[in-house]
Amino acid sequence: MSTTKIKAFHRGVTKKFTVTLSVDGVVQDITLDTVLVTFKKNKNDAGTVIAELADVATSGAAGKALFTLSTTDTDIAVRRYFIDILWNLSGGDKYVVYDAEIEVLPRISIA
Fold first, then answer.
1. Residue 95 pairs with which residues in a beta bridge?
2. How many angstroms separate the CA atoms of 21 and 6, rounded?
3. Domain containing 46: what range?
4. Which of 28, 21, 34, 51 is closest to 90 using CA atoms?
5. The model's pTM
6. Is residue 3 part of a domain?
7. In a domain, 51, yes or no
8. Are 102 and 8 in contact (CB under 8 A)?
9. CA 81, CA 31: separation in Å to the nearest integer?
10. What CATH number should be reported for the domain holding residue 90?
11. Which residues are CB-neighbours of 37 under 8 A, at least 6 positions away?
12. What are the E-state strand segments in the chain?
C-alpha cells in the first residue's frame, strides 16, 4: 500500500517525505482523502508528539501524499519514536499504510 521508508532524522530540521499509495499495484487518486503521520513515545500513549496531515492536493491524483515536518515539529527529544501513517479514505475506510520505529538524532549545532 505504501512505498515509503522513513529514515532517522536530526532534531530541529525540516523533514520532507512522500508516501505513494496504491492497491494491488494500482496507484490511487487520494485527492479527496486524508493521510496522517503520527509520532508517539510509546505505542499505547494517548497523546502524540507529532501529528501532521499530508498535502494531498498537489500530487494526490498520482497517489502521492506529501509530508513536511517543520523545524518546530522536529524540535523534539532525541530518542526512538513509534510512527504510523493512516490513510483515511473519503468513503470512511481507514488503513495503516506504514508502521515503524524511527530515531531522532542529536545535532551538534543545537546546544
1. 87
2. 15
3. 9-105
4. 34
5. 0.91
6. no
7. yes
8. yes
9. 29
10. 2.60.40.10
11. 50, 51, 52, 54, 67, 83, 84, 85
12. 9-10, 15-20, 22-23, 26-27, 34-40, 50-53, 64-69, 79-88, 94-105
> Is 2 inside a domain boundary?
no
Examine residue 58 and state whether it is found in any structural domain, yes or no: yes
**Count of structural domains within the chain:** 1
Per-residue pLDDT of the chain (111 residues; tens, 9 = 90+): 555 678 899 999 999 999 999 999 999 999 999 999 999 999 999 999 999 999 999 999 999 999 999 999 999 999 999 999 999 999 999 999 999 999 999 988 865
CA–CA distances in Å: residue 90 to residues 30, 32, 41, 44, 55: 9, 6, 29, 27, 15
The answer to whether 83 touches 96, Cβ cutoff 8 Å, is no
Other C-beta atoms lying within 10 Å of the C-beta of residue 35: 26
Q: Can you say whether residue 93 is alpha, beta or left, with left for phi > 0 and alpha for psi between -120 and 50 degrees? A: beta
Q: How far apart are CA 96 and CA 62, in angstroms?
A: 19
